[in-house]
Queue: 2 jobs
Job 1
Amino acid sequence: TASVDTEAALALRHEAEHAERIRQIIARKQLLLYAQPIVANAHPEAMPHKYEVLVRLQGDQGRVIPPGEFLPVAMRAGLMQTLDMAIMEQTFEWFATHPRALEALSHCAINLSGPTVASPVIAQRIGLGLSQHRLPAHKFTFEITESQAIANPAQATDTIRAIRACGCRVAIDDFGTGVATFDYLKRFDV
């Protein structure tokens, strides 16, 4: 049993170190954000300037770390709300400093995890960010990550309504692949 305990202790230490690296990257605003174009299958030109923001981290020696390697750690460490807000803020800052891109933008989707949507302060942060950077709310959609269950559906309902009241749209990301599917459609104003 000593080897099992040693392996478990090493795994916990590795997880804590990884979580701390994620925390530091967020604090230094060093997230790698990508704009994935949203295009129609038949006529891609029919959906100009629509994007979904994707996040990656930069590891040692410049290696790009995919979300499958860091999102589970961030979730277990309770960092999802911090990460989601950092992604939103970095995205808003980028559009504020690139007015031509903002003008050409038709639609930008930003993901929000279940823990984030269940927080009462998120809509305030979104409204503040839009106001601070003078961004048009109608160009932003916040996608609820359907692959994660929302722990507090009542608060999530209030949050979704408040985000919509800011002028943004709300959608379900990866509909049909997660845990809630039709319950989200019935429960939330998306």
Job 2
Amino acid sequence: MFGYERTDDRLTVRADGTRWLSNGFDGGYTTADAAHNLTVPEGFERTDLGAYVTERLGAVPDGPALLTAVPQTNARGASYGPIEAVVTAGLSNPALLAVGDPPDNTDDAIDGTGAFRPGTINVFVGSSAPLTDGGLAGLLATAVESKAATLSELAGCTGTTSDAVVVGCSDGTDATPFAGSATVVGNAARVCVRDALEAALRATYGRELLDPHRVEHATVTAGTADVFEP
């Protein structure tokens, strides 16, 4: 369903009149003909991301844009049924979440003040089946779930500190409000994200993936919440 324009540092995903939902820095719902994945240079420290994207594209984009340190030549895609997914994958800043025995120290806990580290897993998912706004939100949740499950199995983490997901669908009548794992759309999304993500990881790291526990910029979630019965 997508058309692609790719250079070493830009991947543009095209589908006319697509309804997008992004959880990136410029996130939200929008209708546009394209979404963009941009590779930033080494040592990138800018925080005016909207201005940076405009400079890179030569105009304010109508659709969503994501940033990564991974070259776009390492992007990989997968298609199945009504879904197509494209992923770039870097694990230089993994986010680790211990379950059952959380760490006591908070030395590596994220506090929102750390420097932007664009390792990043960026996921683009398109559906040829029309979806409502709620259906798009469900598709985004399904894509994130598949990303986390795949990373847990392959790399021992659920994501990085700067991951983002963009989902889009064609416009049309009979839009469905459901895209969970038990639906045709959701099942296909899980398959595509899983397979595209694994291929993208292999493109970046080969057969031997990074051990996220040994990466310099790993962030370990710390603290224990007060659990209550509402």
